[in-house]
Amino acid sequence: MTRLKHTLFAAFFACGLGPAAQAGENVMVVFDGSNSMWGQIDGVAKIEIARNVMDNLLGDWTAERDVGLMAYGHRRRGDCSDIQTLVEPGADNRRDILARINAITPTGKTPLTDAVEQAAIALSYTDRPATVVLISDGLESCERDPCALAEALEQRGVEFTAHVVGFGLGGDEDTASLSCIAEKTGGQFLSASNAEELGAALSAVGTAVARTPDPEPVVEPEPEPEPELPEVTVTGPETAITGSDFAVSWSPVLGKDDYVSIVPAGSEDGTYGNYTVTRDKTEGSLRAPADAGLYELRYVDRSTTATLGAAPIEIVEPEITISAPEGVITGAAFEVSYTGAVNKDDYVTIVPVGADERSYGNYQTVRDKSERTLRAPAEPGLYEVRYILREGNKTMARTSVEVTLAEVTISGPASVQTGQPFTVSYTGAVHEDDYVTIVPLGADEGSYGNYQTVRDRTERDLKAPAEPGMYELRYILREGNKTMASAAIEVTDAQVTLTGPASAVTGAEIDVRWSGAVAQDDYITVVPMGADEGAFGNYILVRDKSEGALRMPAETGMYELRYVLRQGSKTLATHPIEITFPEVTVSGPATAIAGADIRVSWTGTVSENDYINIVPAGADEGAFGSYQLVRDKSELNLQLPGDPGLYELRYVLREGSRTMASQMIEAKQADVTLEAADQLRLGDKLRVSWSGTVGARDYINLVPMGSDEDAFGSYFQVRDKTQNDMKSPDATGLYELRYMLHANNRVLARRTVEVLAADAALNAGASLSAPESAAPGAMVEIGWSVDSDSADQRITIANPDQAIFTWIRAVKTSEGPPVQMQMPDQPGTYELRFLDVSNQAVLARQVITIE
């Protein structure tokens, strides 16, 4: 290992393995595939030796770096362009590179200079760090100068490095030609003459490529001078009692999230205890710690936890006393008094003697009082009452209390019937929240059944269970649910009887009788024969009675009456009953006007809450229309629906809404007429007449033309009239006069009416010609034209609101137009009228103003 030793130890280890590949740079291995690689060393071809040790070069570093493979002279003889990238640079290419090297067949020339140049270009050597590892066994054979290339690559590249491993070189000329590539690019040249040396050389190059260069020394900047912190003045009392609240103030406020805290004197910055946030205030309240000693009040900058101001404070122990009775009975309430209370949130509690600090039992906060009521535990023994400081849950005072068993007795009847109320008495009641209960004999502690709290009484009423058997009465201490006294009691079956009729019709009310009633809230019910226990239908409570009325179901069949114990819903007595159909009839007219009232009669009333109903023919069972309860009657009036068609009168059983009888009826369209003037003036009255009235609640309605069918305007009910006057609308325009059916607001007749201005002329077979105004008392000439003739036609002048066939003055028209008429003496608005007195008709009207 002569030359290799010199190269490795002198050039690598003594020089720190030479330049390392930069972290993250790409590497290209350039492999000699020329024909000379078939030459042998120790009887083995150089290509085989190289294949066997190439793994030494490609270590773990290939998993983190982009590595590629380029070969030359491996495909064609005598071709200096036979250079090929076999594996593109990429991470974790180790297996691919070894596989491609194993497939190389040495064939041609040695264009190593061009190969190194192409490898550098493939690695973008001018833009980023790049490393080429050349493995070759001889000289450049394609007339290029590798040393000149190396110098150019070093000048143009960004940290370009080439490592060269020469294998089985011929002489010094070969060595010099290859070594200059490494020397000029800052790489390493290693020469090997056998397999061992080649493996070592490749390992050394692999180490050089993998090594990350030492980082550049970091120059520590000169430390910045500490900024001067602002100062805050903190003020508080010199002393405070442990656990007490005390006032603290500060100035100025530097940040709304800063805080003032109390900490032991000398604590490091960042330490905090109880604190208050400054917000935008300059004062607040803190609670003193539970332990006495020297403390500091600190104003702390929230962002840096730096203390900006401080003040000393001494925390001292309070002088607290507590007293309680020496002995109390289990579960009893007793008074605790204390002095020197520190904070309203402190509390007094009772715990076993020697209980751990922070233990607590029943407790009360002290508030602003000097005494509180506690409840003794359920278990007898030695206890102590403690005054506990809320801050730190520290015991400040204590006194001993002995808790002894209470002497309680309980008694009741030796036996009761199931579900029966009975009285329980007791002595030695401990607390008003204790309770008495009845449970099965031997039931677990804490079990309860029906119960009553004892309150301030000595006896309470309980209700026996529904199941017979042996039970016990218990007095239970609310504190701990502990049984303090008990007494045995037997619960026996109640002797109850129940009677009623053997049969009844559906929906009928029947009389039921019973005896041996147990409790007022027991009930009588009717259910299908064999129904499950607990089932119920219509029912009545027994109260303090022995009989009552019960309504039967709507469906026929076999049923049973049951006396049911409310306690446990247990059946104590039964009676069978058969429910049959009643014989009911209903009748009315075969036809009637739609919306009219009709007379309906019936027979076989079942219940006064049944009803007569009218619905469309074929309507579902239970459908509703116009209806009336039957009460105690046998006939009534019922309004037909407003729409013509086939309907059905039904007698409906209230129980189950079941139809018991029915009759078909046809509702026919009403023949209604409506008459009124075609025109009227604002403020005038419109006379309306009609015929064919359907119902007294129908109405005449005047609405603007085009209104919805159910729109409302000015209206009146027709009642028993055939004519009525109605006031004109408040605005001119076209209107529609409608006869409306009350049953469904359907329009049965309609007529158009035009509302004109208050001074508009109204012509109906004639017209007037006269001035629009005249002086008081003046003579005015009036002309006219008329379409008809009669024995008595006159022109009159009247007040506008005066009855049509009354007037101030009148002139007959028998001598033909024109006529002279004197005007009234009083100024105002008047109306000229052309009247056909013989036919009681108004033929024309015109307003005239006297001024």
From TrEMBL:
Which ranges carry the VWFA domain?
26-205
SMART domains this protein is in? VWA
Q: Does the keyword Cell membrane apply?
A: no
Instruction: Give the top-rank taxon of the lineage listed in the UniProt record for this protein.
Output: Bacteria
Q: Please give the Gene3D superfamilies that the UniProt record associates with this protein.
A: von Willebrand factor, type A domain
**Annotated region described as Disordered, given as residue ranges:** 211-232
PROSITE patterns for the chain? VWFA
Keyword terms of this UniProt record: Signal
Question: Which SUPFAM superfamilies did the record assign?
Answer: vWA-like
Q: May I ask which residue range the UniProt record assigns to the signal sequence?
A: 1-23
User: Mind telling me which InterPro entries this protein's record contains?
Assistant: VWF_A, vWFA_dom_sf
Bias category Acidic residues: which stretches? 217-229
Protein name (database record): VWA domain-containing protein
What is the organism field in this record?
A: Roseovarius faecimaris
